[in-house]
histidine kinase
Amino acid sequence: MALKVPVRQSVFKQLSLRLILIVPFVLQISVAVGLTGYLAIRNGQKSVNTITSQLRSEISSNINQQILTYLEKPYIVNQMIAAGIAEGQISITDMPALEQLYWRLVNQGTVDFLQTGTATGANVLVERLEEGLIVARTGEASDLPKRQSYRLDHQGRRVEQLKTQEFDPRTRPWYRAAQENGELTWSEIFIAASGSRATISLSQPLYSKTGRFLGVQNNNFRLARIHEFLKRVAVGQTGQTFIVDRSGKLIASSVVEQPYKIQGEVLNLVAAKDTENSVIRATANALIDRFGSFGQIAQVQQLEVQINGERQFVQISPLQDGRGIDWFSVVVIPESDFMAEIDANTRTTILLCLAALMMATIVGIYTSQWIAQPILRLSQASEAIADGAFDQSVNPSKVRELGVLARSFNRMAQQLRESFTALAQTNEQLEQRVEERTIELSNTLQELQRTQSQMIQAEKMSSLGQLVAGVAHEINNPMNFIHGNMTHVSQYARDLLELVQLYQQEFPTPTAAIEAKVEEIDLTFLTEDMLKLLNSMKLGTERIQEIVKSLRTFSRLDEAQVKEVNIHEGLESTLLILQHRLKANGNRPEILVMRDYGDLPLVECYPGQLNQVFMNVLVNAIDALEEGNVKRTYQEIKSNPNQIVIRTSIVNAAWIQIAIADNGPGISEAVQPYIFNPFFTTKPVGKGTGMGMSISHQIVTEKHGGKLDCFSTVGVGTEFVIQIPIRLEVGSTDA
C-alpha cells in the first residue's frame, strides 16, 4: 500500500528555515536595542524630573525657613522691649540705659539693629555696621533735629564721636507705619538713613499702662542679608533663586546685586518681568502667563519654562510670616545641570546595543546556515519518502544533535520500509480484533461500574477515628517495647563502658591487638557518641509516644462513649493532626495559633464526636484564611499574618464555652443563615460536601444539648462559639 500525501506545497512558496532563524533573532535584538534606548532616555527624563522636583522643594523649604528665621528675631526682640516698657521695667526716657540694653543685644548677635523713637522726637539707635563696628546714635528731644553718632568699644562705652546729622524719627517710614496702624507691622522697603542700603523695618508702637502712646520701637532688617544668603544656597550648577512680592516686584536675588533703583532718597523696586537678568525675566513672564499675576498664586507651584531653547525647572512658594510679609521664593534649575552625564550614558548604551545587534546578526547568519543545510537535506529526503521512495538516507551532520537526528532518520526509514510491508498484512487482522475487543471492553466496563459502586460504599463505611485509633494502636505497642527497653540498653551500655574504663585502669598496657582495635574503632569517640546516640533515641521514642497519645486522644475509640475529658487535650490533639496545614509553605508564612485557655473542669461528653466538631471548625478556618490569601502577596500576608485564636472559658457553674476565631475574609450576612444547612457550601466544586458544619451543629445541639453560633464580619473575620454543659443532660444520647 503506497503512502499518499493529500496536499504538498512547494518549498519555494513557504518560508525558508534560514529566514525563520535569522529574522526573529534580529527582530528580538532590534526590539531590545530600541526598548533599551527608549527606556534609557525615559528613565533619564524621569530621574531628572524626580530629582529636580525634590531639589526644588528642599531648596524652597530651606530658603523660606531661613528667611522666616531672619524675620522672627526682630519680632521677638521688639515684643520683649515693648513688654518691658509697658510694664515699667524699661524707661523710654532713659536714653543711656536704652543704649546699654541695645548694645548688649546687638553685641550678643541677637539682632544687628535696634532703635526707639519717642513721641517727643527723642531717639536712640544701636547698630552693627557691615564692617563689624557697633555704633550708637542718640538725639534728645531738646536737640532736634540733631543726632550724635558714636563708636562703641567692646564694653559698650563711647570711645569716638563719628558725626552729627539731622534726624527726626517721627518723619521716618517705620515710625509713621507703626503710628498709623497702631500695631506691630512691617514697613515698606526704604533707604536706610545711615546709607544707601535697602531696608525693611519691623515697627512696634509703644504704650504706657494707661494706653498713652509713647513712641515706636524699631528693628531694621537689611535686604542684603537675604541676597547674601541666596548666593550661598547651592542650586545645581547654574541655578538661580530670587524673592518677589505679591505685586511681582523683585526683593532679592542670588545673582542680581542690587535688584532696585535709587533716585536720591527714594527707592524704586523693579518688576521681576522687567529686570535685565534673562532667567528672572523669562520666569516671571511665564508665571504671569500661567496664573495671570503673582497675586493669584495661593500655594506651592512647580512648572517648566523654556529660556533660550533650554528647559528650566521652576518652583514658586509663598513666603509669609503673618505680620505683613507676603512674598514668594522662586527657584530656577536648568535641565542642563543634570542631563549632560545622563545623555552621555544614554549614547554609550545605544552604541553598545547597536554593536551587539551587528554581532548577533552576523552570528545568526552563520549559525542559521550551519543548522539549515542538514535540516534541508532531511526535509528533501522526507519528501521523497512521502512520495513513496523509501530508499532514502542522509549523511550525519557535524552538529551532534543533527547527527543524532540524521541517524534516527535513517533507522526510521529502514523500519518504515519493513513496517509498511507488515502493515498491510496486519490491517485485516486488526479489524477482526477490534470487534472482539469491543465486546470484551463492554463487559469489562459493566464489571468496573459494579466494582466502583462497591468500593465507594466500602469507603463511606470507613471512619477517620477508627483509622487514627488503629494506626496509634499499632505504633504504640512496638514503640512501648522500644521505649521500655531503652532504659535497659542505656544502662547496659554504661555498664559496658565502665567495664572498659576499668580494664584500661587495671591493665594500662594493653596488647598490640587491643591497641590496634581501640585505634580502629576510635574508642574515645565511640564512648562519647554512644551515650549521645542513646539519649537521642530516647528523646525520639518519647516524641513518638506523645504523637501516639495525641492521636488516641483525638480518636477516643479506646475509651467509653460518654466520658469526662479534658477539652484542652482534644483541642491540642486536633491541632497536632492539622499541623501540616498550619505550618509555613511557599505561598504563605505559618498560620499563628493563639491559645487563651481558661481553667476548665473535666467535661462529660462524647470525646470523639466533639473532636470531630473541633476538626471541622478549624479546617473551615484554615480554608477561609487560604481563600483570603489568594489576592495577597507573601509580603502582605507576612505584614498582616493569618491568625486563629482559641479561647476557652466557664460561662457559669453548668456551662463552658469554646470560641474559635480567624482573621480571614469573613462570611457575608446573606450567607450566614445557611451555613448549618445540609449540603450548603461556599467552597468550589470538589473541595466541600456541605455536611461538615451541619454534622457539627447536630453533634453540639442534639448530642450534647449545647449551642453552636457563628459571628462574622466581612473583611474582619469569623468566630464560631461552642457552648456545652459540663454534665451531659439525661436524654442527650444516641437516638
Remarks:
- The longest strand covers residues 310-320.
- DSSP finds 15 helices and 23 strands in the chain.
- Residues 66 and 342 are 33 Å apart (CA to CA).
